[in-house]
Amino acid sequence: MERAEQLIQLAGTVEGVVFRNRENGWSVVDISCEGELITAVGEFSELSEGEEVELTGVFVNHPTFGRQFKASLCTTKLPATAGAILKYLASGAIKGIGPVTARRIVDRFGSRTLEVIEKDPDALAQVQGISLKKAEDIHLEYQRVFGIRSLLAFMAQYGFSAAEAIKVWKFWGPQAQELLCENPYRLCLSFIGISFDRADAMAIQLGLSPESGERVQAAAAHVLRHNTQNGHTCLPREKLAAVTASYIGLPPERVDFEIGEMLERENLVEYTGEERPMIFLPDYYRAEGYIATRLQMLISFMPDNGTQWDRQIAAQEKALGIVYADTQREAIAQALRQGFVVLTGGPGTGKTTTINGMIELFEKDGRKVALCAPTGRAAKRMSAVTGREAKTIHRLLEAGYQKDGTLAFTKNEEDLLDCDVLILDEVSMVDVLLFEALLRAIKLNCKLVLVGDYDQLPSVGAGNLLKDIIDSGFFPVVRLSHIFRQAAQSAIVTSAHEILEGQVPDLAQRDKDFFFLPARDKPSGLALIRDLVTTRLPKAYGLSPADIQVLSPGRRGAAGVQQQNRILREAVNPAHGQPEIGYMGMSFRQGDKVMQTRNNYDIVTTQEETGEKGTGVFNGDMGQIEEIDRKNGLIHIRYEDKRAAYTPDMLGEIEHAYAVTVHKSQGSEFDAVILSLLEPNPKLYFRNLLYTAVTRAKKLLVIVGSRRAVEMMVENNRKTLRYSGLGSFLRDILG
C-alpha cells in the first residue's frame, strides 16, 4: 500500500490573488511565508491581500506553473494592526471600499476599524465620502464575506467543500449555520444537491438520534428523489416504507408513521388510484396532475372543418407531386382538426414528410408554428429537415438560474409563447417536469403535436410520458408503419423493424450500410473497435474518426464506455506535446472529443458562421477541445455550430465522448455507429435498447460482439417498470 503524502502546515500573509472563482471558491493566491513567496491553490473563502492564513496541504509540481502548495484546509486570522487592516481593505476585500476610502476609515478608527464595521456601522458615516446608506451597505457586505467564511469553516469540519458552502450560503444566507445545526438533513431536502448519506454523517457527528423523525423523513424523501433518477415519479407506499427501512436500519412501521407525518405537512402527497396508495414528491404530483388536466383541455378544442382540410391536403399533394400514405394523410388531418395529436413511427416511415406537410398547411392558414426538441442535436436535425428554426425546449422557454441556483423559465403562464401550433419532436426523451413547464407556456388555443418513437428507450428523467399518453387510449394517435421504398433499401432500417418484431437481423449480410463482426473476447473486441475507428472504416468509407460514434449499453466494466474512451483516446488523439489539463482525476487534451453532461444556460457561446454571441450549451452536445489557453485559463470547445470557452472549474460538466452509452445517444444521429456488445448483461441487454442503438446510425452501422448477445437482446422484450401517475390521472379525468 502506498504511503499517504505527509500533510504540511504553512502560515503566512496573502500578497495577491491570482485567480478566484466566486461560484465554488477555487482560488490561486500568492502567500508570503518566512520570506518566501509561495503559490497556493485550493478552495478558499474570499481571501484578500493582507490577510494572515494557515494552510494545510502538500507541495505539488504543476506541469506548466511549477511548484505549488495544494491546500486542503485554510484558516484565516483577521488583520489586527492598522497597517494590515489598511492593506486588507485597500485590496477590495469589502465591496464599496477602495484604496482612498480604506485610508480614510483606518485613519479615523485605526486598529478598531473592523470592529466598527461589524458592530457600529453608523459610525462610518463620520468618514468623508460615506453616507449612512453606504455605511449600511459596507456593513452588509462585511457580514456576507465573513458569514461565508464562518460557514465554510463550520462545514469544512464535516467534509464539505467551499463550493458547497457557497451554495448553502446562497440558499439560506446568514441563517445557514443555525439552520444546519438545528437540522442537518435540510441539506439533502433542498436544491443544493448534497446526498442523504453526507447529511446523515453530519447529523451523527452533531449528536442527532438515528431514530429521529428528521432522519427518517429525510431518508424517505431521499429514496423517492433517488428513484426519480430511475424514471419513477412515485412509489407504492408499502414499497417506499420497506426500501427506506432497509436503507436506514429501522422497522417499516416506524418509517410508515413518518410518511404519515410528511403527508400531514404536505411534504409528500398520497394518491389512491386504481390499485394501491402511491406516494409522490409534491413537484411530481403537481406536474403529472397538470399534464393530465391540460391535455384534456387541448383535446376538447376542435374548431376546424374536416372537409376543408381534406381538400387542402389533396391540393398540397398535387402541388408537391407526391402521394401521402394513408397514415400520413390521417396524421396531417388529425393535426389540422384536433387540438392535440401524437405522431409515432420508426425509421423510414415518413415522419419528416408528414411533419413538413403539417407545417406547410398551418402556415398557409396563417398559423405561427414553433418547433422544438429536448436536445441541441435533435433540434438541429429538426431544423435541417424542416428548413425552419427549431429550438431546444429550454431555449424556447428561456431557461435560466435563479439566485438560489434553481432553474426557472421566463416563458410561463405569465409570459406565453407566441405561437399557434407547437410541434415537439423526440418526445420519448422528455420528462414530466419539463413537459409541464412547456404546457404552462402555451396559449389555451395553441395546437400541440407530439412526435416520437414509441419503441425507443424512455426518458432519462422521471416519467413515461409518451407511453402513458398513448396507452391511455384517450387521444388521437397515428402510428406510421409503412416503410417507404428508398428507406427499405437500407439494411439499418429493415434491421430496426425486424428487431421490433422480435426477429434477429441477418448478421451474415454484407450490405453496404450494416454488418456484424464477431469478437472472440473482450480484449480482441476492444482492439477490433479501435482499428475500425482509426483505420478500417476511414479507409473503406472515407470517414474521419470524428464521424464515427461508438455506443455501448453500459459505462463500467472491462468493455464499458469508460474503458473504451481510454483506449480510443490514445488511438485517435495520442499525447504528442499538445496541452493537457487535469480535473478531479480526469485529463483533457487539446483535440479530445467531448460531451456536455448537463445543461449550462449561462456559458457564453459564439456562432460559427455569423460570430453572433449567445448563451447555453446543453446536455448531450458533442464537441472537440480546440484550444487549451493556459495563459488566460480557458478551454475552448468547438461544437457543431458554436464555440464556448470553459474555465478549469467547469470541466466537471464535460466527459470524453469517443464512446457514449446508448441512453446518452438518444436524440442524436451519427453518420457511422459502432455498437459494442462485448459485455452481456441481462439488466442492460434488452430489445428496445438494441433498437434505439441501431436507429442512431444514418449511413453505416457495425455491431461488434457475439451473435448470442444480439439474440439475447432481441429475445429480452421486458419493459422497464416505471411507476407513474399520469395514466391514472388521465383515467380519472377522461375515463
Automatic annotation (TrEMBL):
Keywords: ATP-binding, DNA-binding, Helicase, Hydrolase, Isomerase, Nucleotide-binding. GO terms for molecular function: 5'-3' DNA helicase activity; ATP binding; DNA binding; hydrolase activity; single-stranded DNA helicase activity. Residues 337-484 form the AAA+ ATPase domain. The keyword Cell membrane does not apply. InterPro entries: AAA+_ATPase (IPR003593), Coronavir_polyprotein_1ab (IPR050534), P-loop_NTPase (IPR027417), RecD2 (IPR006345), RecD2-like_HHH (IPR029493), RecD2_N_OB (IPR055446), RecD2_SH13 (IPR041451), RuvA_2-like (IPR010994). The keyword Hydrolase applies. DNA-dependent ATPase and ATP-dependent 5'-3' DNA helicase. Has no activity on blunt DNA or DNA with 3'-overhangs, requires at least 10 bases of 5'-ssDNA for helicase activity. Belongs to the RecD family. RecD2 subfamily. HAMAP family: RecD2. NCBIfam families: recD_rel. This is ATP-dependent RecD2 DNA helicase. It comes from Bittarella massiliensis.
